[in-house]
Amino acid sequence: MKRTLLIVAACSILFSCGNNGKTDAQLQHEADSLKLESTEAQRDSLLSLVGEISESLTEVSRMENVITSPDFQSETPQQKRQILANIQALRDELRNRQDKLTQLEARLKKSNNFSKELERTIEAQKTLIAEQSAKIDQLQQQLTQANAEIANLNVRVDSLHTEVATVTEQKVAAEQHSQAVTNELNTCFYAMGSKSELKAHNLLEKKFLGKTKIMEGNFDRSFFTKADKRTLKSINTYAPKAKILTKQPVSSYEINDVGGNKVINITNPTLFWEKSDFLIIQIN
Fold first, then answer.
1. 233 vs 266: CA distance, rounded Å
2. Rg (CA), the chain
3. Concatenated DSSP letters for 206-253?
């Protein structure tokens, strides 16, 4: 219909070319045609704007689905920033469309063809835009809250990592201390030598009435070999004769002959080292 009216208006103008005298009816007809064309163009603009607003509603719904999705927490910080940027762009676009709708409403009201139907359509679109804007504000609030929760969780995770690291360090230190104490408790010393060698290092001394004293006074600790009670099972004296001078219980060890040399085998380590951590062996 629009196209037909345009053609009619154009034909009227062509037929009147060269004739400056126009009747009032012709002039009124041309004016009505132009007014109708402008009104219909405004209606078309309104319909196009309604379509754009509907697309915005679809985009808002898509944003809502993204943010409320369980997979949202796994989004990277860069992806979350992009979502925020998209929400801001959508808010700006809605504001732009609201301005267009207000301008279009003002123009339509000035025309003679502003009907109740057009008014209801415009009001419905205003309501849609308001709802969409409110929904966008809600989505941005949810996203901001989610980012705050994530930041809080990151702080808690960092704090837990620090606590775990501290506890781990304390545990390692305690284990090292415990191991050091255990090693110290299981440290033993033994020395081998002839009678003269033992006397020379103050490990053996003859007292009055021929009584022998073992490790009396300041004896030479450097003459001893350091060992571990847990692993020291036997001592090869590399001598044909050997005897233990310290007070290890005789039931805790054996002296065996191996290839002409005496070997001391510790059969009960706990009992063997019960009275002293030092062992003196005299060899000949």
1. 5
2. 53
3. E-GGG-EEES-SS--GGGSEEEETTT--EEE--SS-EEE-S---GGGE
Checking if the pLDDT of 227 tops 80, the result is yes
pTM above 0.70, yes or no: no
Q: Which of 147, 154, 152 is nearest to 75 (CA)?
A: 147
CB 123 within 8 Å of CB 102: no
CA-CA distance, 186 to 188, in Å (whole number)?
Answer: 6
Least confident of 39-48, 164-173, 191-200: 39-48
Q: Is residue 29 predicted with pLDDT exceeding 50?
A: no
Please determine, for residue 222, whether its predicted confidence score (pLDDT) is greater than 60. yes
Q: Where are the beta strands (DSSP E) in the chain?
A: 187-193, 204-206, 212-214, 225-228, 234-236, 242-244, 253-258, 261-266, 278-283
**Contact status, residue 110 vs residue 166, Cβ threshold 8 Å:** no
CA dihedral angle for residue 99, residue 104, residue 109, residue 115, rounded to 10 degrees: -120
> What gap in Å lies between CA 273 and CA 280, rounded to an integer?
12
Q: Please tell me the predicted confidence (pLDDT) of residue 124.
A: 80
The answer to whether residues 31 and 55 touch, using CB atoms and an 8 Å cutoff, is no
The 10s digit of each residue's pLDDT in 88-136 is 777 777 788 778 778 877 777 776 666 777 777 778 877 877 887 787 7
Following DSSP, what letter does each residue of 14-35 receive, concatenated? HHTTT-----HHHHHHHHHHHH
As a whole number of angstroms, the distance between CA 67 and CA 75 comes to 10
Q: 74: which 2 tokens?
A: 């796994």
How wide is the angle at C-alpha 244 spanned by C-alphas 239 and 247, nearest 5°? Answer: 170
Q: Does residue 132 or residue 217 have the better pLDDT? A: 132
